[in-house]
């Protein structure tokens, strides 16, 4: 009986010490490297959630790749919502700082993206709360870049940067160099 109690204590001690190692490692990985996110809603259709509301895509958000706030046109990114800081939204980068963008319903028909900002839009314009609603987004709100679709299994794929037709910048700040 005493041996069982000693073995039980050893098991409990090993579990607790493993737990106190695993939790900080997991938190660090999720905070600095990558995590998974469920994409809900129609704003990124048809690329994400092509079946509508029947099944949501799950994407891998790479936090490490945006640690220096470097994104490119066509990337799908997660940002803290400028309207509701408690919410994260997933949209496509259309323009970078210095780019001139033709908007789709913003207060100005054309916008120059200011330094330290980018222009994001959902692929399904009629159902998207994006830069056409709140303007250019500060790069400080950048949270991660979607690198892979990991669920459902039939849609596993790497996400490559691409711009929808007719949605690139009219003029890029890079043209000056």
Kindly list the characteristics that best describe this protein.
single chain, 177 residues, alpha+beta, 8-stranded antiparallel sheet, two-stranded antiparallel sheet, 28% strand
Sheet/helix structural class: alpha+beta
Mean pLDDT value: 87
The gyration radius over C-alpha positions equals 21 Å
SSE order, as H and E?
A: HEEEEEEEHEEE
List how many beta strands DSSP finds: 10
**Quaternary status:** single chain
Q: Sketch the major β-sheet.
A: 8 strands, antiparallel
Shape: elongated
Q: Spans of 5+ residues with little confidence (pLDDT < 50)? A: none
Assess the beta-strand content as a share of residues: 25-35%
**Please, how many helices?**
2
Cα-to-Cα separation, first versus last residue: 80 Å
Portion of residues in helices?
A: 10-25%
Description:
With 177 residues, the protein is of the alpha+beta class. Helix content is 20%, strand content 28%. The strands form two sheets. Strands 1, 2, 3, 4, 7, 8, 9 and 10 form an eight-stranded antiparallel beta sheet that branches. The chain has a two-stranded antiparallel sheet with strand order 5-6. The longest helix is centred in the N-terminal third of the chain and has 31 residues, at 2-32. The model has no long low-confidence stretch (mean pLDDT 87).
Describe, in short, the structure shown.
With 177 residues, the protein is α+β, with helices and mostly antiparallel strands. Helices cover 20% and strands 28% of the residues. The mean pLDDT is 87.
